[in-house]
Amino acid sequence: MPLITCPDCSSPVSDSAPSCPKCGRPLAAMTIERTGKSIKGIQALGCLSFPVGVFCLLAGMSSDGGQVVATLGILLMFAGGGGFIWASVMKWWRHD
Ligand SMILES: [Zn+2]
To answer: What is the rounded average pLDDT of the residues 18-22?
Structure first.
């Protein structure tokens, strides 16, 4: 379990704890916000790598000996699309 720092008393608290065991500050909202940001980051990366992947695929197909570039483009498309879908599902799943 990763530890986060309590914003009130600065003691280390498990990020799965609903509140700080020392001062009782509720931490659940903070954990959700932190998780939401990392999911948004993955979603943004997916948004970026998908068009880059499409571009690499088209560039690789239209040039001689561009198989490596085209393969890289396909990988980027799948990674970007998969990351975007995963982040969308996680956002939906975690939403109360
Ligand atoms: Zn505290």
So the answer is: 89
